């Protein structure tokens, strides 16, 4: 499936979940590549290598799994019922990736994005307690790519992001674990995309 058609299908699925009318698309150029229409956030990007002088919106830390030039889109509708969608194209084929909303912005290293965003914060970090590290208290967006490296995932939670609390989506090397002592873990951080999911 070609990239524009793939992301159109993803957007239509997102709008169906949100139950709102269509939002206008944004182009991948400075000042216009993030569209925010009321509570709708649309962030399309292309994965690049880290550049400290001009930090990319989406950065890959493992070009073998997330190649430079692969595409990503994050869509979100915030409110008492928050929907987050993740669409990718051009990643490693037929592979299951973990993906989650993280607290901080992307940086030169995957660790720069900080821990997962949690609606109710675990007092013990890193959080591996399934009481806190679960898809109801965090935003989990695990996905499995097809032969073209394309996939779409959606998450729905019954809360909104706190101001200043959520700034990125990180893609990990494997599916997210849920057992006690491993909950929320998904291996190495392969890539990151900056998304303004919370105000401030």
TrEMBL record:
Molecular-function GO term, any one: metal ion binding
Protein name in the entry: Superoxide dismutase
Homology family: Belongs to the Cu-Zn superoxide dismutase family.
Region feature Disordered, mapped onto this chain: 112-133
SUPFAM superfamilies with a match to the protein in the record: Cu,Zn superoxide dismutase-like
Source organism superkingdom: Bacteria
Signal peptide region: 1-25
Biased composition (Polar residues): 118-128
One GO term of the biological process aspect: superoxide metabolic process
Entry annotated with the keyword Repeat: no
Keyword Signal annotated: yes
InterPro entries documented for this protein: SOD-like_Cu/Zn_dom_sf
UniProt KW keywords: Signal
């Amino acid at each position: 499936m070609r990239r524009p058609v793939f992301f159109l299908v993803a957007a239509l699925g997102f709008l169906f979940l949100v139950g709102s009318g269509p939002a206008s698309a944004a182009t991948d150029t400075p000042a216009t590549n993030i569209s925010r229409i009321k509570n709708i956030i649309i962030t399309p990007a292309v994965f690049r290598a880290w550049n400290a002088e001009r930090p990319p919106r989406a950065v890959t830390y493992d070009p073998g799994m997330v190649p430079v030039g692969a595409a990503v889109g994050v869509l979100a509708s915030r409110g008492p019922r928050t929907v987050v969608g993740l669409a990718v194209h051009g990643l490693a084929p037929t592979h299951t990736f973990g993906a989650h909303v993280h607290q901080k912005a992307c940086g030169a290293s995957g660790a720069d994005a900080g821990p997962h965003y949690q609606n109710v914060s675990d007092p013990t970090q890193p959080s591996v307690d399934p009481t806190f590290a679960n898809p109801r208290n965090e935003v989990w967006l695990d996905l499995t790519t097809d032969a073209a490296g394309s996939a779409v995932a959606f998450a729905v939670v019954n809360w909104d992001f706190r101001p200043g609390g959520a700034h990125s989506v990180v893609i990990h090397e494997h599916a997210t674990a849920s057992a006690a002592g491993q909950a929320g873990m998904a291996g190495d951080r392969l890539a990151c995309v900056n998304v303004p999911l919370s105000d401030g």
